[in-house]
Design goal:
Blueprint lengths: L2 H4 L1 E9 L2 E9 L5 E15 L4 E13 L3 H15 L5 H6 L26
Antiparallel strand pairs: 1-2, 2-3, 3-4
Length: 119
């Protein structure tokens, strides 16, 4: 087993067409946990129709515990804008979204997205 694979404490993957997203919890040598998010994209490089040659292009993001709440809050806000639940104009005037204090007037009701980080 490769050194970086031994460090993985937990892994979850999401298949999306030619891409796979990996969410891995790893631990440093001093016992600190962190999250890596990896996008792996299948690329056809040569070969012929019967025997194509594939490679995988990977992009990796490292997220450390001091940034979890800010990252998740920004992600949830961005998803709301992408889904049309909030306008860009709303975002300019809105207070920063936090995980500890949901908006009392209109709590986040999206049941299709669940992010559970218990560290």
């Amino acid at each position: 087993m490769a050194e970086n694979e031994r460090d993985i404490m937990f892994s979850e993957s999401v298949k999306a067409g030619k891409r796979i997203y990996y969410f891995d919890v790893k631990e440093t040598r001093n016992g600190e946990r962190f999250l890596t998010i990896t996008e792996s994209k299948k690329i056809v490089e040569g070969g012929d129709l019967e025997n194509p040659q594939f490679t995988f292009q990977k992009h990796k993001l490292f997220l450390y515990k001091e940034d979890y709440e800010k990252f998740v809050a920004a992600l949830l806000k961005t998803i709301k804008v992408a889904k049309g639940e909030l306008s860009v104009d709303d975002m300019i005037s809105e207070e920063p979204l936090t995980l500890d204090a949901p908006d009392e007037e209109e709590p986040f009701q999206d049941t299709s997205i669940h992010i559970d980080l218990d560290f």
